[in-house]
């Protein structure tokens, strides 16, 4: 009987907040998999481990040295700063050891293959990521840490924005780091949506502001994969789907603030699809430059 294998990264502690709980927890309505902020120990060893899921590890720490043993062969693995490890679901190792500088932080993103297939209409297991260690991709590192910040702050820009960020990360991985780029066969989106499709999107968004307006939901109305829909949408509308939905919600909120002075801001927030009054207030101030209450006073 073989040795039991732990999931990759179990030996690294999650970074905790002042209340003693992890700074970052995957929100229940974020369906892409799991994401954690981990603290890299200065010196450590670990036994048998398996990835289990397609795993992306973006690290910001001082360079050091590490050694991994797989299939009886031990080799030193590079450690660059900053760097990315990309591991397919079937990646395994028998032993690991490392020695690095203090203050190491990493974001670990474990992707759900079934959700990627739903959004890209491609099976990530068939596509296959290459195993890569500590490769340099500043754009990917910045995107992963930005996604972690967004989720850690309880998605101040809305879950649709976080979904769009994740979709962009996965699209980048499939395009640049898969054994075979599964996106080559797709139209690059230069033609955009047809006039009929654009009208359908406008009508659906306008009548559904209070409901679920994820990219996946809107794309399903046109029977297009969410990733391809996003590219076509940007060509046609000049902005990402989440930006358009946010604009429509802010515009609707402004009209309600002006036309119904007795209606509470919290009620308006829920009516146009924001999860709370504070969520509306933060988004409104970013887009308009004033809080909803102040804007109402100025336009009363």
UniProtKB/TrEMBL annotation:
HTH araC/xylS-type domain span: 199-298
Family annotation (PROSITE patterns): HTH_ARAC_FAMILY_1 (PS00041), HTH_ARAC_FAMILY_2 (PS01124)
Classification of source organism: Bacteria, Pseudomonadati, Pseudomonadota, Betaproteobacteria, Rhodocyclales
Superkingdom per UniProt: Bacteria
Keyword hit for tRNA-binding: no
Listed GO MF terms: DNA-binding transcription factor activity; sequence-specific DNA binding
Protein name per Swiss-Prot or TrEMBL: Helix-turn-helix domain-containing protein
Keywords linked to the UniProt accession: DNA-binding, Transcription, Transcription regulation
Species this protein is from: Propionivibrio dicarboxylicus
